[in-house]
Amino acid sequence: MTAPTIPTSAAELEAMLSDTSTLTAIAKTPASLGEFIRKYASAQMAKNGEVIEAQIREQSQIVVAEMLKQNGTTLSNRSKLDLGAGKSVTGAGAAYNPEAIGAALDSEFASVSDFLRSVVPDHKKSPKDRARWEKIRNDYSTVDPATGGFLVPEQLRSEILQNTLEESLVRPRAMVISMDGPSVPFPCVDETTHSGSVYGGITGTWVEEAEALPESEAKFGRIVLRANKLVSYCEVPTELPTDAPQAFGSFVDNAMPRAITFFEDSAFLTANGVGKPLGVLHSGNSALIAVAKESGQAADTIVWENVIAMFSRMLPSSLNRAVWIASIDSFPELATMALSVGTGGSAVWLNNGVEGPPATILGRPCYFTEKVNKVGDQGDLSFVDFGHYLVGDRQQMRVESSQHYKFGNDMIVYRVIERVDGRPWMKSAITPANGSTKTLSPYVTLAERA
């Protein structure tokens, strides 16, 4: 039997593996199966190399961070840029940090649910629980000295946040800054143009030998990250932590990270910056470019020309990192986009109804979400490089519990308090070096189509 033709799509692969004779030939020996897999992978890499590489790069950050944490080190230890007291770059995501305040408690608890059961007042009765209660008690706050609560061990804090990285849009792609205090100033380049200079004033001039050298100086600004308080609240039946510890642990390990992810992402994307992060798509982001609708474009639509115009406004150095963020109700518009050619045209994104929709637009990953504006409003489709977004992480999490607030309902109330901030790193869109009037930015969105 001749060697099977290597499939080029998921549909072709499914059809090939549905053929019993072909499947038998492919899997005849481990060597033949391995050879087929290698050839198929090579074909896919040749066809979609950049997309696959980007997806692998994004997911590997999460996997590597978890692996390093389990082996007693962190991603930040390997690649941390020390910027002085109170501010260090820990890269993408939220890896375990052995220098965080909660690291001293890591050996005290087996799981998140074990920790939450321990902070319920009834569990002070045994000597062991009383000792653990006193050890995790934290009666100070850098903002309000009267605020109490229970410091979450760093191992558990990082597990909660690590779980969020798989579903989070912003945090795993942003620049995360560890914060040792309630506010941290972070440097940024203050620039508005690349026409004649870069990085806020650095010029390049060709000079003859012995000619006087020109002077240039970069202009820097700063962005202040403040530890805003995010409070996650939930009510749990009194019996659940002790009568059904496994169910309680499952709830905590799944529901709580997803809740934190949801509220973090919503703020990092659209919040107004008052007592909370400044969202990358909020109008208060002075570097945000809102691409206008096409002439005569109908309300609440997305056309292929919008996508092309948005791509052309992305900062070129960000093109290999930028991702598309789309409202889920924009899918019908994206799925029916067409490119007009003379009196005809053809679909440009969804070519058939057999395979699932492509995970990319113009070669860059596309993520659908409910956390941005509805279709037709500004921000329903955006093209963003989150590497130019700063997340300030206080790396400190507290839990508060009460059996009295919902005493009449026989419920335990938990509050999980996290302190974070988020700010766009660039302060202004950039006039390109060629002098074009169309500015560039790592934050591009589609303006309202009313």
From TrEMBL:
Entry's localization field = Virion
InterPro entries, alphabetically? Answer: Phage_capsid (IPR024455), Phage_capsid-like_C (IPR054612)
Matches recorded under SUPFAM superfamilies: Major capsid protein gp5
Q: Which domain of life is it from?
A: Bacteria
Q: Give residue ranges for domain Phage capsid-like C-terminal.
A: 148-433
| NCBIfam families reported for this sequence | major_cap_HK97
UniProt name for this protein: Phage major capsid protein
Species of origin reads Phytohabitans maris
